[in-house]
Amino acid sequence: MHVLQNPVPSSSTPVIFFSRGFAFQKESCRLKMPLLSSLRAAPSLLCLDQGVPLLDLQRLKDSLQLHTAFEYGVLGGERVKTREAKAALEDWSLSKNLGADTCVIGVGGGATLDLVAFFAATYARGLPLVLVPSTLLAMADASFGGKCGVNVQGIKNMVGTIYHPQEIIINVDLLHTLSSQQMASGMTEIAKHALLDSHQFVEQLFSSWDACLHHDSSCLEQVIAQSLAVKARLCAHSKDTRHFLNAGHTVAHALEALEGPRLPHGIAVAVGLYVEAMVGMRREVVAKDVVDAARDIFLRVVPDHPLSGGWDLGDWKQILAHDKKNVGGRPSVAWIQTIGKPYILNGQSTVPLEWVEVEHAYDLLRSL
Ligand SMILES: [Zn+2]
User: Fold this and answer.
1) How many CB atoms lie within 10 A of CB 100?
2) How far does Cα 295 stand from its chain's mean position?
3) Angle, to 10 degrees, between the axis of helix 199-213 and the axis of helix 288-301?
4) How far is the CA of 265 from the centre of ligand 1 (A)?
5) For the chain, where do the domains classified as CATH 3.40.50.1970 start and end?
6) N or C: which end of the chain has fewer CB within 10 A?
7) How far does residue 129's CA lie from ligand 1's centre (Å)?
8) How is domain 181-367 classified at the architecture level of CATH?
9) 26 has pLDDT over 50
10) What's the CA-to-centroid distance between 165 and ligand 1, angstroms?
11) pLDDT per position as a tens digit, 150-168
12) How far is the CA of 268 from the centre of ligand 1 (A)?
């Protein structure tokens, strides 16, 4: 077992790294996971993403040594983020007489954790929550920061809240069955955090990119910890700095709506970072270093996972007209001015686009 000490120092949510096998030894668990240890006597609700291999789940369950554990299978993927799925989990929990003393342990990818955390936030007015992310994207981004919710009428994360887990457990060995597409998807969110942080992080990430894709545990732990530290810093500062994390996501969410569930979130973000940076460069608010780095990220990720592209400008504008980040009815973006420095206009980090810029973004997309 290997534990990184205090990898995210500015965070109030302990993030615990375990790797080199599933040797969650008893003493270490007690020391490193106080919540889980104290709750072992209480009933636990294990919400398990069905996309995680059974053998990994079994090893994980054995290592957690839970006293009374109820298990609930979650389908996984974006399709699970519905009000109906949350209601089904609530009804099932009621049928098992689960009350306010239940500890919820969510194991899975980002969508599963979004659903499970939203359930934990509201059931019996809030249950203690532990997250065990199983994808790179969830480890480096989605499990941290407290955002949770479901999609409504095709609008991503339309209904939800902020609810922080008490503990996050990261074991990079869970990544061993991930596809290259899923690994690339996670690397993109890490890259977004690097762009928001520093040239040093960007360069380090690019130099360890291939090792991470080939599941090098040390490299993965290093970049995940750095990624979480950036996110922790931005989330802790203010609601406005949290919005910096939306970089690339206006275009990414619209693209996901157009392409459907076959397009992984991180691949959409790779496109979004590049397209938004180029639109920003045209307005002369985004510097060349950001555009070049975003292009580098794009080229590392998208050519191997191309877009289908069967959509038109009308669809594009209609989807963007309903984005929940809209300001005054106009689609808005969070730009990165230069690496390490988000763009702020009149004290705001979310900047409305002109409709002509929305059309320009579409032209750029078609030309990729
Ligand atoms: Zn994202």
Assistant:
1) 10
2) 21
3) 10
4) 7
5) 15-177
6) C
7) 21
8) Up-down Bundle (1.20)
9) no
10) 18
11) 999 878 889 999 998 888 8
12) 9
Other beta carbons within 10 Å of 110: 28
Q: How far is the CA of 144 from the centre of ligand 1 (A)?
A: 12
Distance CA 115, CA 118 (A): 5
Name residues whose C-beta falls within 8 Å of residue 136's C-beta, 6 or more positions apart in sequence: 175, 178, 182, 183, 185, 186, 187, 190, 212, 220, 224
CA 202 – CA 264 distance, rounded (Å): 22
Ligand 1 geometric centre to CA of 269 (Å): 7
CA of 173 to the centre of ligand 1 (A): 22
Integer distance in angstroms from the first to the last C-alpha of the chain?
A: 44
Centre of ligand 1 from the C-alpha of residue 44, in Å: 29
Measure 323 CA to ligand 1 centroid, in angstroms. 15
Q: How far is the CA of 270 from the centre of ligand 1 (A)?
A: 10
C-alpha of residue 141 to centroid of ligand 1, in Å:
7
The CATH-assigned architecture of domain 15-177 is 3-Layer(aba) Sandwich (3.40)
* Cα 225-228-232 angle, rounded to 5 deg: 135
46-90 residue pLDDT tens: 999 999 999 888 888 887 777 778 999 999 888 899 999 999 999
User: 20 is written with which tokens?
Assistant: 């080199």
Q: Cα(62) to centroid of ligand 1, in Å?
A: 31
**Average pLDDT of the residues of the chain:** 88
C-alpha closest to that of 235 among 144, 325, 150, 326: 144
Task: Kindly tell me if the per-residue pLDDT of 94 is higher than 80.
Answer: yes
User: How much is the pLDDT for 4?
Assistant: 44
Distance 160 CA to ligand 1 centre (A): 16
Q: In the chain, which segments carry CATH 1.20.1090.10? A: 181-367
